[in-house]
Structure formats: structure tokens, C-alpha cells
Design goal:
Heterotetramer of two alpha and two beta subunits. By secondary structure, the chain is α/β, with parallel strands linked by helices. It is built from nine helices and 14 strands. A seven-stranded mixed sheet has the order 3-4-2-1-5-6-7, with helices on both faces. It has a seven-stranded mixed sheet with strand order 9-8-11-10-12-13-14, with helices on both faces. The longest helix is centred in the first third of the chain and has 14 residues.
Length: 294
């Protein structure tokens, strides 16, 4: 079992013929991802060779879906064109769109998120500005390194790409059911809560690790959801305990003002919901090990 992505997922790559798309398509194929095509209207009808495997290029997401049965798209389109790419995927009715692109205007992200909702939420969006998701040993949709962990029974959801990788590595001997990097932009598609609900329903996930960051109130809302709906043990980490107040830090998505949005406030909210919260990634990994052995 896994959430959102399995060995049966048929993946296309929007922007596959660009330098970044080419690089990560090759890596995803190496991780066993079933990539069935790329999308580039200017190169439709051609194919790209990846170490002896020819991957066809289609003119649109709809055409790719019709010809291959694709149900996942990974978006490596430059920021200025990303909104149109995601809207195209939504119009085609693809089940999952993983938007890796960073630097997308917040207005554009809000627009395609609202468009997906107006279309009945038939397309789950992960991202933007995210590392994607991986089900170790099955499929990898994005830029998460596929060789730093193994299949296991921990579910991971994280705002931060780098901390996703670190936590996967710290707990590599136990392994993960799925790891989802949701991104840290102010407007994202899939949230902590969405992933928590999916992991709660997944019979092969025994423990959930949740990584947050300063800014916004997503972690506080997740804490309320955990208290009301999650029966599995949850371990958390919030990046930014030493961040100064009143300053936007990295891609955390919001300015910290007073106690609102601080790491300490998020830690307290999560602990009130029964989540054990580490002060460092390594401490969080130790808490996860203890929870699994309890």
C-alpha cells in the first residue's frame, strides 16, 4: 500500500525535454517509475532516449492520457508557463499533478488551485515548489533522491524538501510507506491534513512523521485535525526555532508576527494534540523510533 502514488501509476512529464526535466526523468526511470510519456507541443511526435528507453513526446496532456492511460503528471515547466501547464492537466482530468516548479507567482498558484476546485477536485495538486513524492521501491514522482531509504511503515509529510531527505535518511533502516513533500509556498494544493488523512487510512502506515516550518497556521490546523481524527502515533518537527520575529524566512510562506506562526507556537499546538515534537531532525527521528517500539 501507499498514498497517492504506486507501482501501477502511469506518469507523464510536462517539460520533459528541458534540461531539468530530462535530468529528473532519467532519475525517476532509474527508481522504477513507470514514465509513459512527456509533453511538449513543439516536439510532439518525437521521442527522447533515456539509456536505451525511448519515451514518446505528446502535444498535450489529453493526448498523452488518451494514448498511454497516464494518471500522474510531473510538472517541470518554467514559472511563467506553469499556470497554463497545470490548467491543461486539470482540463484533461488527470488524477494527480505534481508541480515541482519554484518561483510561481502566488496569484497563479491561487488561480490553478481554485480552478481545480471549480472542476470538482478531480485533479489532486501537490506543490508547487515541492520535491514531489516517492513510494520507495515502487515509484518516484519528482526530485526526491530514490536511494536514501527503503520501503517501510512510516509515512512522511513535509513542507521542506531538504528536511524530507534528511528524515528519510535518518530513518532509512526502518523505511517509509510514502514520503510527500507538499512545498512551503503560501498557496499549495495538498496540505498536511490531506496527507495525514491518507496515512491514517493506509493499513501499511504505522507511524506518521510531520515536518512543518515557521509562518502561517497550517501546523496548528493540522494539530486540530490530528486531535479529532488521527489514531496512529504522530511525531513532528518544526523548522525555525531560532528565526527572528517579523521577518520572512526562506520559503516559509508567511511573516512571523509575535507568537503567531512561530516554531514554539506550532510545537505547543502539536504537543497539545498528543504529537511528540523534536527540537532537531535527529531528535525527531529518535522520537519516531521510540514510538514505533512502544
Amino acid at each position: 500500500m501507499a498514498i497517492f502514488l504506486t507501482k501501477d501509476s502511469k506518469v507523464i512529464v510536462q517539460g520533459m525535454t528541458g534540461a531539468t526535466g530530462m535530468k529528473h526523468t532519467r532519475l525517476m526511470l532509474g527508481d522504477g517509475t513507470n514514465i509513459v510519456g512527456g509533453v511538449n507541443p513543439r516536439k510532439a511526435g518525437t521521442s527522447v532516449d533515456f539509456d536505451g528507453r525511448a519515451v514518446p513526446v505528446f502535444g498535450s496532456v489529453a493526448e498523452a492520457m488518451k494514448e498511454t492511460g497516464a494518471d500522474v503528471t510531473v510538472v517541470f515547466v518554467p514559472p511563467a508557463f506553469a499556470k497554463a501547464a497545470v490548467v491543461e492537466a486539470i482540463d484533461a482530468g488527470i488524477g494527480l499533478a505534481v508541480v515541482i516548479t519554484e518561483g510561481i507567482a502566488v496569484h497563479d498558484s491561487a488561480a490553478f488551485w481554485a480552478y481545480a476546485k471549480a472542476k470538482g477536485n478531480k485533479t489532486r495538486i501537490i506543490g508547487p515548489n515541492c520535491p514531489g513524492l516517492i513510494t520507495p521501491g515502487q515509484s518516484n514522482a519528482g526530485i526526491i533522491p530514490g536511494d536514501i531509504t527503503k520501503p517501510g511503515r512510516i509515512g512522511l509529510v513535509s513542507k521542506s524538501g531538504t528536511l524530507t531527505y534528511q528524515m528519510m535518511y535518518e530513518l532509512r533502516d526502518i523505511g517509509f510507506s510514502s514520503c510527500v513533500g507538499i512545498g512551503g509556498d503560501p498557496v499549495i494544493g495538498t496540505t498536511h491534513i490531506d496527507a495525514l488523512a491518507a496515512f491514517e487510512a493506509d493499513p501499511d502506515t504505522d507511524l506518521i512523521v510531520m515536518i512543518g516550518e515557521i509562518g502561517g497556521d497550517a501546523e496548528e490546523r493540522a494539530a486540530d485535525f490530528i486531535k479529532a481524527n488521527v489514531t496512529k502515533p504522530v511525531v513532528g518537527y518544526v523548522a525555525g526555532f531560532t528565526a527572528p520575529e517579523g521577518k520572512t524566512m526562506g520559503h516559509a510562506g508567511a511573516i512571523v508576527s509575535g507568537s503567531s506562526g512561530t516554531a514554539q507556537a506550532k510545537k505547543e499546538a502539536l504537543e497539545a494534540a498528543g504529537v511528540k515534537v523534536g527540537k532537531t531532525p535527529s531528535e525527531t527521528a529518535r522520537l519516531a523510533r521510540a514510538a514505533l517500539s512502544a
